[in-house]
Amino acid sequence: MRPIARRTGPAILAIVGAACSVSGVVAQEPGGATSYAPVSVTEPFATTMARMKAAKAEIEKKHKSLLEERYDLSNKPAKGVTMSRGRPVQEGVRAKLPAGVTWERLATMPAAEIREKNLFPKGFYPLPHPNHPEGGMLFPKFEIDEIKKQEDRDLTRFDLDFDLPDHLLPEFPAPIYLTTRPDLGDVSKGKLVTISNYYELFNGILNPKQLEGLRLLVTPFPQQQFNQTEDRRSEKPSRGVACLDCHANGHTNAATHLVGDIRPQEFRHRIDTPPLRGVNIQRLFGSQRALKSIEDFTEFEQRAAYFDGDPVIATKKGVNVLERGSQVHAMAELQEILDFPPAPKLDVLGKLDPSKATEAELRGQAIFFGKGQCAVCHIPPYYTDNLMHNLKVERFYKPVMINGRYATADGPIKTFPLRGIKDSPTYLHDGRLLTLDDTVEFFNLVLGTKLTQSEKQDLVAFLRVL
Q1: Does 14 score more than 60 pLDDT?
Q2: Domain map of the chain by residue range?
Q3: 10 Å Cβ neighbour count for 414?
Q4: Residue 92: exposure state from Cβ atoms within 10 A (0-12, 13-18, ≥19)
Q5: Angle at 463 between CA 276 and CA 285, to 5 degrees
């Protein structure tokens, strides 16, 4: 199959036209595709909603079949391993292998052979949005229910529900740790922080500027799917979404979206919401990492990312233009004091204290810094090098269309910090890797490290204590 970029005329128009027929996110001009969403919508809202509701069951059935073909989605908690507030961590490799192949056999095969024989595990391919031609912000039900309870604001989409089971997602609500007050431990008191309770929770803990930053982070503003217009995806006109609707409690609830900085639609990457914990030590932001500070990212999110990267449609739907010197800076200052969870087995340099670690964890650390090559990119104490790396995973498979997502080269991706990594499943930028076991298996294949089964298990044990 030839790369889509080389197709001409009717082929590319047919793909873009299919996207248009579902959502109008990518419009088609007489001369070909356009980068802009349609501004003037002629279809009545009631008609749009009825049409999309009618299509919902078939769309979700198709995506569910894809997930079940790729993964073991069952609930398999690891014995004695939990996230910071006690949620069980899932264990085991969940990506399914092609018939007749083992992980050990696959790891010995050259990338070209895996590609030619179509043996790359489907769970390692790019993961599409639950409705990729439509895209848009999509929230887990537990987030929707809590926001509706606290604020009477409904983040339900009439056209689509979240796709992954709750047991594979981060704990909710997540604990909040502050670099400024480590003595307090979790300051969330077990609550989801919203516009309804942020003041009572944080008055006396934050300074006035940080408190104002938090207020803005939990204030809903118009967004592509949640707004007042006739091309929204909420049944009733919506006040919009807040930053912490996705980055719940300054962490993540695994809400998903599509990147705003790629066109056409089928090339846009799914986003697995990254945690805001530890952004003070990070230097690259945005899906293409073109933003160099959390201030840049905060401003960009509300000006462009909220609207699929389309400033024209943002004007129509009610873009919230933040003032850089006060609002953006206050929001950034709050984000920059969100800390990683405690890691009691690590010393001040970010490595294991031998008096506290198990033998398996110590062996895993040796693999991490040696045979596994993990530390080439993930450098202690925060386990990131703040750089981009191109894994060139496309070496292992032929380009293919997967439920509206054209699976080809991902390009460079950011080295995310591994501190607290067990608290933030799923993994990789699009969430295609469901567990840490999947992640180790993926990198063992992609980097060609040829780890044994026991070495993989030890490496997972080490990752769980970071």
Answers
A1: no
A2: 71-124+343-463, 141-335
A3: 22
A4: middle
A5: 25
User: Measured in whole angstroms, how far is the alpha carbon of residue 447 from the centre of its chain?
Assistant: 23
- Nearest-angstrom CA–CA distance, 456 and 83: 20
Residue 58 phi/psi, 5-degree rounding, is -70, -40
CA distances from 178 to 183, 186, 188, 210, 438 (A): 9, 8, 10, 12, 30
Determine the 3-state secondary structure of 88 from DSSP. strand
State pLDDT tens for residues 311-330. Answer: 999 999 999 999 999 999 99
CB 403 within 8 A of CB 62: yes
CA–CA gap between residue 60 and residue 171 (Å, rounded): 24
Q: What is the pLDDT of residues 421-459, one digit of tens each?
A: 999 999 999 999 999 999 999 999 999 999 999 999 999
Q: Judge whether 50 and 36 are in contact, CB under 8 Å.
A: no
33-37 long-range contacts, Cβ below 8 Å, gap at least 24? 33/263, 33/264, 35/263, 35/310, 36/310, 36/312, 36/313, 37/308, 37/310, 37/312, 37/313
Cα 25 to chain centroid distance, Å, stands at: 21
- Rounded to whole angstroms, the Cα distance separating 139 from 246 reads 7
Q: Phi and psi (nearest 5°) for 178?
A: -115, 135
Q: Which residues pair with 426 in a beta bridge?
A: none
Q: DSSP 3-state assignment of 170?
A: coil
Q: Could you tell me the end-to-end alpha-carbon distance of the chain, in angstroms, rounded to an integer?
A: 42
251-284 CB burial, b ≥16 within 10 A, e <16: bbbbbbbbbbeebbbbbbbbbbbbbbbbbbebeb
Confidence of residue 23 (pLDDT cuts 50, 70, 90): very low
* Predicted model pTM: 0.92
Strands 270-272 and 388-389: unpaired
CA 252 to chain centre: 8
Q: Which CATH class is domain 71-124+343-463?
A: mainly alpha
Interhelix angle 453-463/436-447, nearest 10 degrees: 130
| 226-250 confidence digits (pLDDT tens) | 999 999 999 999 999 999 999 999 9
Phi/psi for 394 (5° steps) reads -65, -10
What's the sign of the alpha-carbon dihedral 397, 399, 401, 407?
A: positive
